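Re-run with default settings, no changes from the original entry. Doing this only to confirm the output is reproducible before filing.
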Amino acid sequence: MSELDTVSAFVEGAPPGELADVVADIKALTLSSPDIISSLAPAFEKYNEEQFVTVKLPGSSQPVIISSHNSLGNGRYFDVESSSSFSFDHATQKASAVQSYVLEGSQADLVKSTLKSLKPYVQEHFANAAYGVYPIESDSKIAVVIVGNKYSPNNFWNGRWRSLYIFDPSSGTLEGSVKVDVHYYEDGNVRLLTNRPSSASIPSGTGAGIIKEISVSEKKYQEELNRGFVSLSEGAFKALRRQLPVTRQKIEWDRVTSYRLGQDIGGGSSRR
């Protein structure tokens, strides 16, 4: 594997909200190759599109999504809700050159109705999220994208929820997946990566029907995650530590200030 392949893998595997830290580390590790960052454009693009990175357009407070599903090519993307297209710099993650964009095509009405039902769902269930609905595959299907980010670097953790659903109007099928990525790095390095696929039929073929199914599916997955976290806490994590000290006796906390280390806790006589 070449040096470029190695550092590209670092970029593509960066945890949520930590790409800048990864790039800084790459610069520190490749002092002998100062031009390598400029060669990472494909890796930055892949990371941003796969992670559904969000960006705020100039003059707007609403984040929009970067993905392959709303790409116009040549570094430009579109957002249906704001009726705009824009250029995106994958290295700096900045948007510019905003222009008006009018969605047209056979799926335009379905895209807009789905977007209308999606907005209140996201606002109710996500604290900090962006969403989008886009026509894909030559206007034969639509993609529904949701991304929720929560960063807490001061507490040494960051997380991201990504939902992607593809609806085929011709068959009425909805294929989707939810990916959760949480990184905890206080005095260690623990990362949770999940990928839950789903499949359903939407007989009505309406935007409201699509979002209703998404709501049911994601609620079920959230409950599964909650049960999994409880199981980890009460099972695997709890098994990593002793239930009692090596003395096999509980510590009497009201006496802890009077303990003489070695004699009272260890049972032996302490040296003077």
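The radius of gyration is 25 Å. The CA atoms of residues 147 and 162 lie 5 Å apart.
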